[in-house]
Automatic annotation (TrEMBL):
Originating species: Candidatus Chloroploca mongolica
Record localization: Cell membrane
Taxon lineage: Bacteria, Bacillati, Chloroflexota, Chloroflexia, Chloroflexales
EC numbers: 2.7.8.-
Superkingdom of origin: Bacteria
Name of the featured protein: Cardiolipin synthase
PROSITE patterns: PLD
Length: 489
């Protein structure tokens, strides 16, 4: 009798296994890249019940329908606002500039993906000193007369960021509307996270946690979909964006690692695009749409402060396309003689890998600066799995030496195009995280970033193909496993 029951259980299990696998063939590949679909199908085939449950939990790379609907609503409103502003006699020319033919393919692609056209009349300052970034942000907040919008993946009140929080308090006390957003998961892992949350709840600021998972309130999305953006906007006149999170430089780590960052401080019409990204996220979280009349007082916020042509691209799981991946890949294909990518995390898909290797093979001087120091185990080994092919094709790889973790995120193309933002060069940032990128079609911005690149290279070790080829066998195993798991998006 026991043997009959065991046989029956085995038969039922086999039938359920095949039902799950056949069902997965009908559902998993839909609107999914072949590499990702294959990885999910392998997982379900090897571990059918656990794999199926995991797919139900994190299989969808998109935000819930209601949030994507709000994104579409905001896209329509932003498009309408830009269209109306272009007819304005004062600032219309800034919002409808002549875009040189060299930049037109990238500007058109970005506008199509993110709904924001290239704007002229901007000024961009690149800042790479951690303390200076925080000091300038606090100083700018102290000039606010109407509103301050602050949004960070990690936002923490500590001894390093205290001056920013004090500036927010002063702004609030003089009647400025302060709105603060932080990512619910990203900002919830540090010793003073609870105190920061309690402070913000009682501060009198507008305060929202982004993408909280609260089943009791019906708030549910894939739990690892995160808002990774870093944005500050003061009165629509001044904006900040880049790689820096609002937290002390060592992130409260117990080892000796600390972080290097790059942020751009911008003025001019482009600030309105950064604010549109903030307003979209505020609307997504609160269902409250901030009106332009409430935020902007007169036309002083839309004036030329420089001569730079800039463009903002929002991306992430609220959009239908992988906006940043498409733009970055297009820009890499457009490089003529020099391309540098500075980023801590590099786990590309096939299209990005093809763009990089073909650029190097057609004679472009391609350099990638990554960190020697790891802070994410799986990503660290996954990105190493791509180094063999990159080195073979002529891509130069520089590893930024410990104990600094290079967290800066930017790309320079030839001598006249730069991208700075929050996005990593990995599949998480391309498919899952909400990110923001700023493209600057300007030689001065590129020159400023090239100076920073030179400093980074002085602190880095150039990776030799011969040395890399003799790394231990166990590392290759970790790399292969990490690369497979990276495809589960």
């Amino acid at each position: 009798m026991p043997e009959d029951w065991l046989s029956l259980f085995a038969l039922v299990g086999a039938i359920l296994h095949w039902i799950l696998l056949i069902g997965a063939l009908f559902t998993v590949p839909v609107n999914r890249k072949p590499s990702s679909a294959t990885a999910w199908l392998m997982l379900i085939a090897l571990f059918p019940f656990a794999g199926f449950v995991l797919f139900l939990l994190i299989g969808s790379p998109k935000l819930p329908y209601e949030r994507r609907l709000r994104q579409l609503t905001m896209d329509e409103l932003v498009a309408k606002a830009i269209s109306e502003a272009r007819d304005h006699p004062v600032f219309g020319p800034l919002l409808n500039p002549h875009v040189p033919a060299r930049y037109l393919p990238f500007a058109n692609l970005s506008a199509h993906l993110g709904g924001m056209a290239a704007f002229a009349g901007n000024d961009v300052a690149v800042i790479d000193d951690y303390d200076e970034i925080l000091r300038r942000l606090a100083e700018d907040i102290d000039t606010a007369e109407h509103f301050v919008h602050i949004q960070f993946y990690i936002l923490n009140r500590d001894e390093a960021t205290e001056e920013v929080f004090l500036a927010l308090e002063r702004a609030h006390q003089r009647g400025v509307q302060v709105r603060v957003m932080l990512d619910d998961f990203g900002s919830n892992r540090y010793p003073t996270s609870k105190q920061t949350d309690d402070y913000l709840k009682t501060s009198g600021f507008g305060y929202e946690r982004i993408l909280p998972v609260r089943l009791s309130k019906g708030q549910w999305a894939r739990p690892d979909l995160r808002n990774h953006r870093k944005i500050a906007v003061i009165d629509g006149r001044i904006g900040h964006t880049g790689s820096l999170n609002l937290i002390r430089r060592d992130y409260f780590r117990k080892d000796d690692l600390y972080y290097d960052e790059v942020v751009v401080r911008v003025t001019g019409p482009i600030v309105g695009q950064l604010d549109a990204v903030f307003i979209t996220d505020w609307y997504s979280e609160t269902d409250t749409l901030l009106s332009q009349a409430e935020l902007y007082h007169g036309e002083e916020a839309v004036v030329a402060t420089g001569t730079m042509l800039c463009q903002v691209l929002p991306s992430g799981s609220g959009h239908d396309d992988e906006n940043n991946l498409k733009l970055f890949t297009g820009m890499i294909h457009g490089a003529h003689h020099k391309l540098t990518i500075v980023n801590p995390y590099f786990v590309p898909d096939d299209s990005l890998m093809l763009a990089l290797t073909s650029a190097a093979q057609r004679g472009v001087d391609v350099t990638m600066i990554n960190s020697e120091a790891p802070d994410q185990f799986m990503v660290y080994y996954a990105q190493h799995s791509f180094y063999d092919e990159l080195l073979r094709c002529g891509v130069k790889i520089a590893l930024y030496k410990k104990p600094i973790l290079l967290h800066s995120k930017f790309m320079t193309i030839d001598d006249d195009i730069a991208m700075v933002g929050s996005s990593n060069f990995d599949m998480r940032s391309f498919q899952l995280n909400l990110e923001v990128s700023m493209v600057c079609y300007d030689r001065k911005v590129v020159a400023d970033l090239r100076q920073i690149e030179a400093t980074y290279l002085e602190r880095s070790m150039m990776l030799s193909r011969d040395i890399w080829a003799i790394r231990p066998l166990y590392r290759r195993l970790f790399e292969n496993i990490a690369r497979l798991t990276a495809a589960l998006q």
